[in-house]
Each structure stands twice: as C-alpha cells, then as structure tokens.
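Working notes for the structural subgroup meeting. M.R. asked for a predicted model of this chain before we commit to crystallization trials. I am recording the input and output together here so anyone reviewing the notebook later can reproduce the run.

Input as submitted:
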Amino acid sequence: MLFRKIRSVIEEHLRSDHEKIMLVDGARQVGKTYIIRHVGKKLFPNFIEINMIEDFRGSKLFSSVNTVEDFYLRVSMVAGDKMGDKNNTLIFLDEIQQYPELLTILKFLQQDGKFTYIASGSLLGVTLAKTTSIPMGSIRKIRMFPLDFEEFVLANGVNEYAIDAMRAKFEHLESLDESTHLKMLDLFRKYLLVGGLPDAVNTYIETHNIRRIRELQSETYEYYVADASKYDAEHKLKIARIYDMIPSNLANKKKRVIAQKIEDKKGSRFSDYADEFDYLINAGIALEVKAVSNPVYPLKESESKNLLKLYLNDVGLLTNILYGTNIRAILDDDKSVNLGSVYESAVASELIAHGFELYYYDNRSKGEVDYLIDDYENLCAFPIEVKSGKDYTVHSALNHFVSNEDYRIKRGYVLSNERVVSRKDKIIYLPVYYIMFIQNVPKKDDLIF
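Returned structure, recorded in token form:
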C-alpha cells in the first residue's frame, strides 16, 4: 500500500470526538476512496460505504433524502445489519456532490450523533462553491492531491530514516554526497515521468512499463475533460478549451493564460471566463498561480485577477502530453530539450500540496520571478526560482527582486540540478529534490501564546 500523509490526518480526526464531519475534496484518481476505505475498515467494525454516483446511475435511493429520518431509512435498506452506534459504525458517503442536498443535512446527522460520518467528492469544491445552504460550521474540508515527491520516494523504497537524514541536511543547508544526490535526482526525473496519480505510481512500481503508465494518464486526462461536460452546456466547451491550452501556455515565455486566445475573440477579458477558471481550480484539476506586482506581505492583498498561470494538477499528465513514451527526453538530460515548464509544474504541485498559496512576481521592466510564497516567520514574500539547465545562476529578475529594500526580502531559493548547496547574499542555491522539505508548517513554539 502506498504511504499517504493524509492518512494520519483522517485517522486522527476519526479517532477524536470531533464536532465536524470531514469532507475529503480532490480531483478524480488521487486516491480519496481508497485511503478512506482503508482507514475506515481499520478503525470501525461496521464500515458502510455508499457511492452516490453509483446510486444515481442505479436505484436513486438517496435522490430524495430531505431529513435525518429519511437518511437512516435508506441506509438501513442497504446496510441495516451494520448500523450499530457512533463508536463502532462509520458511514462513508463517497461522491457526495452527486446529491448536494445531502451536504445540507450533514449538520443534523452530526448533531443527532447516532453514527460517525466521513464524505468525499471529486467535484466537491465546485459543488460547495455553487451551493448556498452548506452548513460550513459543521464541516471540516481537507483537500487531497496526487502523491507528492516525498511520498513517491517512499513508494520507491527509500526509508523514512534516509528521508529524515536528508531533511536535516536541508535544514542545515548542507549538500548530499555525490551518490545520494544522483539517486535523488534520478528519482526526481522519474517522478516527472510517472507523476503522483496512485494508479500510475503502482503501475510503475509493478511493471516499469511507460506505455501502461501513459495509458492510465491519458484516461485520467480524458476523465477530467469529460467531467466538464457535467457542468452545463454554456460552460463545458470553454472549460475544455482552457484546460487543453494549459500545456501550450506553459511553453510560452510568460506562461500566462491569454483571455483573447480562449475563443479567439478580440476584447475578451478574464472576467468573461470567471466561472470556467473557478471550475478548473475548484475541481482540483488545475493549479493557479496568481500575479502580484507589489510583493508585500500578505501577498493575497496585492494579487491580480487578470494575470493568471495555470498548471496541470499532476506533472505526469504534462510529460505524457509533451513527450509520450519517449523517456529519454527527461532521463537522459538531453540539452536540446527545455524542461523548464516541467520542472516548474512539479514545483507548483509540490508547494500547493504542502499548503501554500502560489503567486509570481510580474514586472514589465524587471522581469518575472517564478513563485512567491508568504514568509510567515519574517512577514515578507519568499521568492523561489526554478532552473532546469546549467545556467542556474542567471536570474536577473530575482536579483532585482531581493535587492529591493521596500520588499524586505530575507532570503530566496533557486532550485536546480546542482548538487552543492551554496549561498550568495540573500539567494540560496538548492538541489531541486529539496522541494519536498519546503513545508507550510509553523514551528511548535509559534503555536503557544
């Protein structure tokens, strides 16, 4: 079984006497159902799983549930023999977004206290955004992503002791030895090919067959496009168009979404496609990076809504589109192949999975910095530049950025293939695989006041 960090979060929640029902949100094929089923069966003698999409396609038993009593009656029809009490019975409502009205009665189910509940949904973010009667005070929503790089490394046989040792090296800004560096760089490049979708990772571990991995990735990509058709007729074609444009946008120097190119209409503005962008982001299939021109803490206060970058939620989907079954483009470090957008995609998905909101610095005269995150410790912006080639020390925009005293920048990272960790003024050079240790977690001492 693949190690997933979210497992401990779910276990802790279900073991506690929490007043809220957990909703696990995330795109399709990221492993939500599997991990909830695994934890639920481990902790509860009576585990009841109800898939609402299957119900909708079949008997529609739960399509007209409006009260707690109605809900109990319908559950009893499919699993009456497993309905014990709150301590020994977990009811798992999978794909709950199929019946949004069920979300509105979660509060009353929790208050009634007969059983323990957990729910998940592939388009839950979209449903929550569109439903006004959600009892948010009764819900604890967490988002699940594809495997991050650390989880991929663990899946490939690197043990936790080795990872802890590397984490200590990162924290002390120390380099790995040459052999360990080459091993980690090789794993990172394989992660670029395989990505973090659980089925793709398992297939890689079991077969090492790139064709089978690519078939799974292509199917998932098509699932994501097909899900857009469930939205509505007015928006689905534009959603599919924006989603399909992501790889080509990333090939451009600026990498931004250009509103006028979505439908080839002059005068089109970002506001014309607000619903489409919201769908892609809330569904978890696209990752957003927003521009800031005045990068002061907190970054959210100066974000621009008209200069947006979108990345696919899984780097394996991107390399499938760009390179197909040609693994040499990535594994052989071919100098004729520019892997800039691929490296940036991996870093974006990693940082977002670690809980960061992502921004980039955009200045017409001084250039662009790939990523900015909030530096909570120093109350300023924290720049991160990603380099896939040998010229990792060339970054004029980053130099201008960190030298601007108005921004109060304390430090910035440049991530590259270079093994040696070094520092020049405010800029710290790190090997790209150290991205797995950049976590959005406060120090324990910071939590006490």
